[in-house]
């Protein structure tokens, strides 16, 4: 069996000015500019975006970048960007900007990308198959190291060099391959069982696409991805722009919703 360990780029050394470990703060934005403070989750999400921009600047051979340029490419304002970067101990030089290579290493280190992240994907149906074939994960340091399903028609097939194995092997294979991130792309009813297997194999980070809430022990992080929720948020913003969303505040007696009309 061949396992594609991906084309993970060599990690840069972490500059010594980096704060020794950065704790996550609860979901909040803002805070004092101090490298010793926990990093808010909103900042962590933006750091990932900065990293994407920095990686493309590095590929273009850029040595420095101004906070304005980096902020514009990341879609945030430059004051917020400087504040985010100060939280991880990074500061630019007035009139010069940030050293792209150094800042990339600092952001990678903060995001924990200076250590390997082998990914196991469970459920190789429509969504899982597309994710398994997406080369961008390996390029950004997340090689797909294991694939699992229960469908006999899928078990034994090979996707981009990785053999699909039966889900019964999750514990053994994930432990053997040092999987650190598990992606759940099974139907909702199988997701908790799959998650339990991943956790018992030592996987401490789970990305869940199934429309269900997973229970995990303390110390295991679950992120849920729901594109329909994102679309609903977009829908809200469109509706608000068109003035069809009531302003926040106590709900006024309103017109019946379509559902109420139909249930009468
Ligand atoms: N979050 C999102 O935005 C989003 C978008 C699309 C789909 N989804 C969800 O992702 C999941 C997969 O969707 P899909 O369209 O790929 O479905 P699918 O039916 O095509 O694929 C599901 C796969 O999971 C496998 N499976 C079933 N039980 C399993 C188990 N115990 N262990 C391992 N594999 C198992 C099936 O054999 C199948 O290959 C669903 O829960 C769906 O609701 C989420």
From TrEMBL:
Keywords per UniProt: Cytoplasm, DNA-binding, NAD, Repressor, Transcription, Transcription regulation
Source organism of the structure: Actinomycetospora chibensis
Domain CoA-binding: 113-213
SUPFAM superfamilies: NAD(P)-binding Rossmann-fold domains, Winged helix' DNA-binding domain
PANTHER family: REDOX-SENSING TRANSCRIPTIONAL REPRESSOR REX, REDOX-SENSING TRANSCRIPTIONAL REPRESSOR REX 1
Quaternary data: Homodimer.
Main location: cytoplasm
One Pfam family here: Put_DNA-bind_N
Record-given protein name: Redox-sensing transcriptional repressor Rex
Binding-site list for NAD(+): 123-128
Keyword Metal-binding appears in the UniProt entry: no
NCBIfam families documented for this protein: PRK05472.1-3, PRK05472.2-1, PRK05472.2-2, PRK05472.2-3, PRK05472.2-4, PRK05472.2-5
Family: Belongs to the transcriptional regulatory Rex family.
Localization annotation: Cytoplasm
Gene: rex
